[in-house]
Design a protein that fits this description.
Layout (H helix, E strand, L loop, with lengths): L13 E2 L2 H8 L9 E5 L5 H9 L3 E6 L2 H10 L6 E3 L15 E6 L5 H10 L4 E9 H8 L9 H7 L2 E9 L4 E2 L6 E8 L9 H12 L6 H8 E3 L16 H14 E4 L1
Helix pairs in contact: 1-2, 7-8, 7-9
């Protein structure tokens, strides 16, 4: 059996514990979808359990040629293998209906993967992924937490976020220097935010890019405003809930002269 060189896989650490792989696969609820896309399957330790679960429309996307060759040789029942980069992949070419995303996400692009999910939030109804523990905690943090940030707000606007369990670095090849966490994101019932969603994203990023400043100062420096006396102007961004960011976005929309 040919082994894949894990050092080639763009910073990915290969999971080698079957019990953990099974637990991750079982984190998918299967509620409201039959399609599943695994990102970065590597040598397929997680893929095997997804196959066992019998998802009717299971696809994997892998950027590494050697890993793709390994999957084709060793998992003959896996029919849908995409050789490509998830970050540039258009899921609409494969999935006509709602689907879930799962994977042991490479640490160096895990945030980018989740931002990509947000772009396709109308179809991606569930995400189960292993990321760096610090990132997992940031995603699931609530207002008032020091780890609450851009990812927290943007993801929690559309998804319910859960940190399911943590994973030791000893179950990877090569072992990373940090611990990992498995998250589950479940699409909420909100179809659209009650504001300009593009502006919402800009507001959240502008505020947290200067998170030590009060909102009055960070908003003033990012947008050309008629006034800066909105109700939460004395607070810092980590103190605002998603709903408060929506209200702030609407306030900015009404009071800006023009965007810088």
């Amino acid at each position: 059996m040919k082994r894949v060189n894990p050092k080639k896989n763009l910073g990915q650490h290969f999971l080698n514990d079957r019990a953990i792989a099974r637990k991750i696969s079982e984190s998918l609820t299967g509620n409201g979808y039959s399609g599943v896309l695994e990102v970065g399957p590597g040598m397929g330790i997680l893929t095997k359990f997804l196959i066992e679960r019998g998802f009717k429309d299971l696809w994997v996307i892998e950027i590494d040629n050697e890993s793709v060759h390994y999957l084709k040789e060793n998992l003959p029942s896996l029919r849908n293998i995409i050789r490509g980069d998830f970050l540039t992949f258009d899921p609409d070419t494969v999935f006509g209906n709602k689907f879930a995303v799962i994977g042991n996400f490479p640490y160096n692009i895990s945030s980018q993967i989740l931002f990509k999910v947000l772009e396709h939030r109308e179809k991606v109804v569930e995400v189960c992924g292993m990321v760096q523990k610090e990132v997992a905690e940031r995603i699931c943090a609530g207002p008032g937490s020091k780890t609450y940030g851009i990812l927290s707000v943007l993801l929690q606007a559309y998804y319910n976020a859960e940190l399911l369990f943590t994973v030791s670095n000893k179950v990877f090849t090569p072992p990373p220097a940090v611990q990992s966490g498995v998250i589950r994101l479940t699409r909420n019932e909100l179809k659209r935010l009650d504001c300009d969603e593009e502006l919402f994203c800009r507001v959240v990023k502008a505020c947290f890019n200067q998170r030590r400043k009060t909102l009055r100062n960070s908003v003033k420096s990012a947008f050309d405003l008629e006034k800066t006396d909105f109700p939460e102007s004395h607070l810092r961004p980590e103190q605002l809930s998603v709903d408060q960011f929506v209200r702030l976005t609407n306030w900015i929309s009404l009071n800006r002269k023009s965007s810088k």
